[in-house]
Amino acid sequence: MHPDEPAPWTPPRTEPGQPRQVRRILKLFRPYRGRLAVVGLLVGAASLVSVATPFLLKEILDTAIPEGRTGLLSLLALGMILSAVLTSVFGVLQTLISTTVGQRVMHDLRTAVYGRLQRMSLAFFTRTRTGEVQSRIANDIGGMQATVTSTATSLVSNLTSVVATIVAMVALDWRLTAVSLLLLPLFVWISRRVGRERKKITTQRQKQMAVMAATVTESLSVSGIVLGRTMGRSDSLTKSFAEESEGLVELEVRSNMAGRWRMAVISIVMAAMPAVIYWTAGLALQFGGPAVSIGTLVAFVSLQQGLFRPTVSLLSTGVQIQTSLALFQRIFEYLDLPIDITEPEDPIHLDQVKGEVRFENVEFHYDGKSGPILDGIDITVPSGGSLAVVGPTGAGKSTLSHLVPRLYDVSGGRVTLDGVDVRDLDFDTLARAIGVVSQETYLFHASVADNLRFAKPDATDEELYAAAKAAQIHDHISSLPDGYDTVVGERGHRFSGGEKQRLAIARTILRDPPVLILDEATSALDTRTEHAVQEAIDALSANRTTLTIAHRLSTVRGADQIVVLDSGRVVERGTHEELLEQGGRYAALVRRDAQLEPTRS
């Protein structure tokens, strides 16, 4: 990281208002409101059918059995069976539809977050740990699955059941209903407090999971394993991971136990309510109150017991929603990230790119507070020409190359392609026009052919072979047991550094961009491998505008123009011979390079 680069990204501390957040969550379901309406109808139908059962039971106890009406008894019993069947069928259908809707919402969220991150500038990823990003997509969205897929339906279903049941209870006996609902406001207050407590703990838990995910991603990668073992830090890393895991254990226990005793008290009270109802009815009869028939009492208790399950579920759902709000907040933080690099409203599309690149009084800094990384850069690279940029570490060489494909945007001045500001071009034009081969070659854990076709998905086998031959890697690939179907391994670790570089070059040849950026593509290679890779680079550079960032000056001597950067400014420019004659900084770099060359063989 450059010394002037900003600190790692941290999410904003201010929480969005809860009503606004709830509205935003509900907006996620808007595309599926038709299916949700069907779910609502099924929920309402199931609630009405289930509430009818106690009334059928009342008629059986108060009329059909005492009066010996066998036909009515059979009809009422059949009605109870039919009610159970319909309730089950409606429940299965609503589960199918609601789960489908929930999974589609999950898909929309994952895709939205991934798409947002794909549009972020390179600066965001230099400030954010990879594991943190993965945790947001996997753990946070995964943690919302139960809420998104079932909580909304459960909320509507239980609320409908509660309302229908209370109406039925009032219809049977309003006095017993008042006794049954006496403590309900207290239960609601308790559940809200438990929900807020769990929401706070969930936020801490997800942050801890993100830290663990980052540790796993970094330390259990191929490079991380090699570094840990060669540095003798495997035990230390294991101990550090154990400490992080221990912290997660505590948070998980706290999360699961938060308010558990208070919710248990609610369950006990609700379960004890039938005894209270019987006691109340008995006292009312003893003190001269109106008598309650056996059928009415049994039907009421049945309704009251039916009220118990959805009420407790409704209170638990409220707690779960409070918990899920913490997860939604973390997802919305990513969805609300400002996009630094965007297409203009009316972008320019170039069908044919000649390849002239210009830097016109370019300035760049990472934020408004840091000093300039580049200052007053004026360089022109004609179509088909070659520019080499050299200089000490931290001079701004790689940053300069990142401005052309808009991995960063300039802070001042402009970069043009064929006379058009790159900020005015559409992304498709930039992607087609500019190819980048860097020192850190990235290969996917896939076959050689799949890695090459990442540049051109519809490439034929013949095109793959031609590109590999131009990059001087075809013979090696063909000698492998599986040929082009060989899996390269994590980050290409089954191949040597030079082989990976030539695969990257073959991939870029397949892309066939008119502008080529070589960012220290051979600096990590030994001299023999460098020569092989350099031949592949020469084949790639032919008839293209080439911008080369180099540590090894032997690779840039044939450039049409060489620019020496120091502290973000151009201090020398010219051809290799002209700069040697000047005897300045470039000449000093050449002498240093010559002294180091024997050690690289």
TrEMBL record:
**One of the record's GO molecular function terms:** ABC-type oligopeptide transporter activity
* Record-annotated ABC transmembrane type-1 domain positions: 37-323
Disordered: annotated segments:
1-20
PROSITE patterns attached here?
Answer: ABC_TM1F, ABC_TRANSPORTER_1, ABC_TRANSPORTER_2
**Which GO CC terms are listed, alphabetically?**
plasma membrane
Q: Which residue range or ranges hold the ABC transporter domain?
A: 357-592
Record localization: Cell inner membrane
Could you give a single Gene Ontology term from the biological process aspect? oligopeptide export from mitochondrion
Give TM regions.
36-57, 72-97, 146-168, 174-191, 263-281
Topology in membrane: Multi-pass membrane protein
Record key words, sorted = ATP-binding, Cell inner membrane, Cell membrane, Membrane, Nucleotide-binding, Transmembrane, Transmembrane helix, Transport
* Source organism, top-level taxon: Bacteria
What residue spans carry the Pro residues bias annotation? 1-14
> So what family is this one in?
Belongs to the ABC transporter superfamily. Siderophore-Fe(3+) uptake transporter (SIUT) (TC 3.A.1.21) family.
Note the PANTHER family from the entry: ATP-BINDING CASSETTE SUB-FAMILY B MEMBER 10, MITOCHONDRIAL, ATP-DEPENDENT PERMEASE MDL1, MITOCHONDRIAL
Q: What is this protein called?
A: ABC transporter ATP-binding protein
Q: Which organism is it from?
A: Streptomyces spongiae
